[in-house]
Amino acid sequence: MEVFGFPEFYGKNMDAWIDCMSGLNEEGMTRFLVRQDEMLQIEFTDTEAFRTRCREIFDAFVDCAAFVNQRYIDSGRAPALSLVFVN
Question: Cβ(82)–Cβ(40) under 8 Å?
């Protein structure tokens, strides 16, 4: 996923996505560096069409984002991801 700027070793699967997004406050895991008091907002446009066409992918993405945020919470940090859905 070029847009996120994942490292060369990115495994191109959802487990690797979770690992990279769990490192938003670490240099080199994504092109973004999110401080403790910040959140990365990921905006979906035409959400309903995407959800209708690719329900499994849409649901997996939402579940993985929630899992990333839970990792942050479990380690005593604030959630780092925010999903914004626009029709």
Answer: yes
Domain ranges in the chain are: 13-21+37-82
The span from the CA of 72 to the CA of 87, in Å, is: 29
d(CA 80, CA 69): 6
| Ramachandran assignment for 46, one of left (phi > 0), alpha (psi -120 to 50 degrees), beta (any other) | left
Alpha helices, DSSP H only, in the chain?
14-21, 47-53, 55-74
Place of tokens 């994504």: 30
pLDDT in tens, 51-81: 999 999 999 999 999 999 999 999 999 999 9
Whole-prediction pTM value?
Answer: 0.91
User: Pick from 67, 62, 68: which is nearest to 83 by CA?
Assistant: 62
- Measured between its terminal Cα atoms, the distance across the chain in Å is 23
